[in-house]
Amino acid sequence: MKTLMGNIGLILGLFLLTGIYSHAQEDSDQVTFTLNLSKEELGINERLRVDFTMNRDGDNFKPPQFDGFKVVMGPSQSISSSWINGKRSFSKTYTYILVPTAKGSFTINQATIEIEGKTYKTTPQNVEVTAAVDKPNSQKTVDDVADESLHLVAEVSKANPYLNEAVTVLYKLYVSPNISVTNYRPLDNPTYNNFWSQDIPVTKHTAQNGTYQGKPYRYVVLKRVVLYPQKAGKLDIEPLSLEVFVDVPTDRRDFFGGRIYTQTSKTVSAGNRTINVKPLPEAGKPENFSGAVGEFDFSVTTSKTQLNASESLQAKVEVTGKGNLKLFQLPEPELPSSLEVYDPEYDENIRTYSTGMEGKVANNYTIVPSFRGKYPIPSISFSYFNPSTGRYNTINSEEINIEVIEGPTGNSDNVSVPSANKQLVVPTGEQFHFININPNLKPIDQKRFFGSNTFFILLLAPLLLIPMAIFFFKKREAIASDVIGNKIKQANKLARKYLSTAKKELGNKEAFYVALEKGLHNYLKAKLHIETSEFSKDKITPILSEKNVDTNDISGFIELLRSCEMARYSPFSNVQMQQDYEKASDVISKLDKQL
């Protein structure tokens, strides 16, 4: 009897525990929608933060009128999603920053939202606005913190360079220790009009400690470029603009006490920079000056000074040093007319550093003497402007004597003297000895066309082409009649068009979902001729319904937009990104068939 009573008690205990667990489970699954205020009493010179928080995602959010207050920022959305012990936790918040417009007692009325077909409302709360306080405690938003903590600066090495003098521009991104940068992408790259430009690749982005406006910052060099101004006067350096994705700490903390970060994106610009380019001085400018600006050495050398006739030698005209090596012409040597000279081969070995170009440029001339004798290569000069001293310098090469030891002796009476660097022409008196006076010409046999191989090929060609033409037209007609196949091909092509950018960013979570969301909105914009930036998910739904689009396809489209929003705040794997990309292609294909 005692055993029976004990079993009954055990069974009743199990039922009781099951009921308690079910009740707790029902409470945890209950939808909540609350209104939270940063303070219930504030001065008229302070700010009020209002948060509308829900534990389920909803649609058709409608805020109150905020009587007695002015909205200075918002609504901004933040989403938090996590899995703990196999259970999903979700939170979505709409945040407003308000400034009171008068003193008195005001009420923040209820807001509404639709979650799973039901409408939920917040509880109104009262706020007391008093006179101005001495030290207002203004509530800063995530965007406020990002604005104050992120700066893009263009540092120019010289504000007053000479024409064709190197100017280095460093683009530095200063980041406050309070936030962290996760990624960035360029929005507007400068074109550098009136400059010859050369990018210096930044292979490694290393953070360094520095100061900005007297405060400690970390900075990283994002871009280096060397500019050579091609015009005197005031020249503008166009700004570089970036979209930077940052993690900003909030006042909230997680279960373990760690600070919760919110991700946002900010657009930063380096701003316009103007430099005053000085023209090169006219006083003391050499006649042979060809635009070289920098510090250079100049030389003329030959591979040999003694050789036989019909042998060749190499003459090199070379400039080495630091400056605008790619932007001037090398001087040409004045060679004797009795030397056969070929067009020069240009050779350069230049590297661009943050201070400008360094290296060498050269012209290599191939020279072939035809007669025995001595041939002098006279000295030539090279002039350049040195911006460090503000003066012109001229370097003269040494005279070189070429001695041809063996070979025929030239006849000065019969030698034609062409201009410099032209090929030598030597008449010998036997220029026409190869002409045959008795050519022994024979008449060409006249063959008949009819009965020839060409005649039969042209005769039988139509018989072979007709079957091929019939096969080609039937194949083309079969392809044209495949309406379903053609629509599928066209739809797939359309999906690839709008999702091409997203496909390139697979593996990069933030950039992929930004591109995916833009692709979906651009498709609707092109297909329905609407500006989708003004439409939320709840407004897109009735528009597609009016076009008789299937409900499942509408739900798939809206679900993809939600994934793009949640991806900015939740970890997403590469597999899930690939699945979302395939879903987007399928949804666009289905919508296109119905629209």
Automatic annotation (TrEMBL):
<keyword id="KW-0472">Membrane</keyword>
<dbReference type="InterPro" id="IPR025738">
    <property type="entry name" value="BatD"/>
</dbReference>
<feature type="transmembrane region" description="Helical">
    <location>
        <begin position="455"/>
        <end position="473"/>
    </location>
</feature>
<protein>
    <recommendedName>
        <fullName>Protein BatD</fullName>
    </recommendedName>
</protein>
<dbReference type="Pfam" id="PF13584">
    <property type="entry name" value="BatD"/>
</dbReference>
<keyword id="KW-0812">Transmembrane</keyword>
<keyword id="KW-1133">Transmembrane helix</keyword>
